[in-house]
Each structure stands twice: as structure tokens, then as C-alpha cells.
Amino acid sequence: MPDNASQSIKLLPLHLSGLRWIWLTAIFIALDQWTKYLAQTYIGEFETIEVMPYFNLVLRYNTGAAFSLFADQGGWQVAFFSIVATVISLGIIFWMWTTPAKNKILGPGLALILAGAIGNLYDRLTLGKVVDFIDWYYADYHWPAFNIADSVILLGAILMLLDGYFHSKESKSND
Prior knowledge:
By secondary structure, the chain is α+β, with helices and mostly antiparallel strands. The chain has four helices and four strands. The chain has helices spanning about 20-40, 75-100, 105-125, 150-175; strands spanning about 50, 55-60, 130-140, 140.
């Protein structure tokens, strides 16, 4: 039986790889940027538009990471998170290229994470900050504002977990 460390990485033909899901990435990058444009056009910064109980539209800018972590660091974090997002995006593209297209959970999951990473990266590169506008709350507790890019990263991560769960079950049943 071959050792996993000695197995080489196989780049699949594009149409047989997870890159066939790249159209999903393009759709969600466009949706993310369009909704951020609408938020910046129609919502004033720190304005709150009540949509329904527990849900508002707001306009917030985040120079940090998730939950505004490192937002008050003076600017270095924008370049740092831009570099990290670029490296991760390139890694995800490579991962998609080595994932068989028949994997209908991992491929779309990676495509969604890539869309979110690129959507927020675009904001950092063009604005120096990420545009957030979705505000869920209960009573006086508000979840930190977020955007479509953040949402598809979460959805993609859930799909990756499901893929791992199902592949784990398949491996056990094949033993």
C-alpha cells in the first residue's frame, strides 16, 4: 500500500476538477459587490434601517478581521489581511483544481469560500476596509454587522464540514 506522503498531487483537467464550480464564485462575488454598492449608496454610515424584528440594515466599515478584531491597529492590518486573503484564495483555487468535479459538496463549498474571500479582499484593496451592512439582533444584543461575502464563507465552511463527515462515514464503511 503506498505511503500518503509519497503520493503526488494530481492536477485534474479543468472540466474534471472542482474548478467547474468557479461560476458559483463569480455569481457570489457579483452579488456581494452589488449589495455592498447598494448599502453604500442608500444607507448612511451608522444609520439603521429597520427591516423586521431582529433584522436591520446598517452601514459599517471594518478595517480589521472578523468581529472587527485588530480594527484599531493603525493600518498595517489592512495589508496583512489582504496578503492572507490572497494566499488563501490561491490555495483554494489549487485545492479546487485537485478536487474531482464529481464531489458535489466540497467543490461548491470551496467556491463559496473563495467568493467570500475575494469579495472582502476587493473591498480591502479598493477601499482599505470591508463594507458590512447586515445586522441581526435580539433585544439589545447585536451580532457584529456582516455582509454576503461573510455569509458565503460560513456556508462554504458548513459544506466542507458536511463533506468531511460524509467522506469519513464512507471511509469507515469501506474498511
